[in-house]
Hints:
Layout: H1 6-10, H2 18-32, H3 42-56, H4 59-69, H5 103-109, E1 133-139, E2 149-159, E3 165-176, E4 186-189, E5 205-211, E6 217-220, E7 223-230, H6 232-237, E8 239-245, E9 248-254, E10 263-272, E11 278-287, H7 295-308
Helix pairs in contact: 2-3
Region (Disordered): 72-96, 111-130
Protein name: Curved DNA-binding protein
Domain J: 5-69
Amino acid sequence: MDFKDYYKILGVEPTADDKTIKAAYRKLARKYHPDVSKEKDAESKFKDASEAYEALKSADKRAEYDDLRKYGQHGQPFQGPPGWQGRGAGGFGGGQDTGDFSDFFSSIFGNRGPGFNGGGESRRSTGRRGQDVEMELAVFLEETLANESKKVTFQVPQYNAAGQHVSNTTKSLNVKIPAGVTDGERIRLKGQGAPGIGGGANGDLYLIIRFAPHPKFDVEGENLIITLPLAPWELALGAEVAVPTLTGKINLKVPAGSQNGQRMRAKGHGLQNKAGERGYLFVQLKAVMPKTANDEVKTLWQELARKAAFNPRENF
């Protein structure tokens, strides 16, 4: 039975905190998941990462592992400290595994299942929790304000009784987008992942929200930004313009003497936050020149230039 350095497997320092360990595991799980990875030995690397995370995510397990770690080297035969002889094996002599995990893992933690009776023997549960499924879900900005459900279709891995991946099935759900959802937010749907093995609980489905690019609006937190094209005389003289929002149009009064690049704001026309309130719609003014001008128009511009006596680079 070879020793496994779980910190080395995850690529973290032994002093790493829980957040760092979890992030390292998630990165490796995405990279080596057998369903998507084309890396060599992806399945075995995925199992190693899962085993390492299982050993280190619990404070109790991690403390026990840390006590043993000083007695072994990664990939080398493990003897353990004097009198150890596989404390977790519970009479199995280290020859049993826990789910898909190695003999080494079982030799330490084999008695920690729900069947442990405290009397030196273990009744190993045959049930194993199903795998979690994670997917990105594209959401239109308009959908964040709607109360309707969104259909989600995803692949769910299927495993045989030995825990081997045998196929994928397609599953569809109607999901209601929570009010105030944000880009990158991770939503958990309990029990909607892969089915459990041997009576174990189903895994969970995790949806990572990604806002779909909008043709008119940019997103800044709970606020939206839209660029409003205006003729130079509309900036100079003022104008009332219909401006699109996510729920229709509003009339915006542009004051006379407004500047190119200036921002105006409309309260309550942004995205919704967790409190149910909506942010601002920022309207950025943009001067747009006519593409062509005839002689008469050019003469008017020249007259304006003389009468305005304006030097835009006075303080340049």
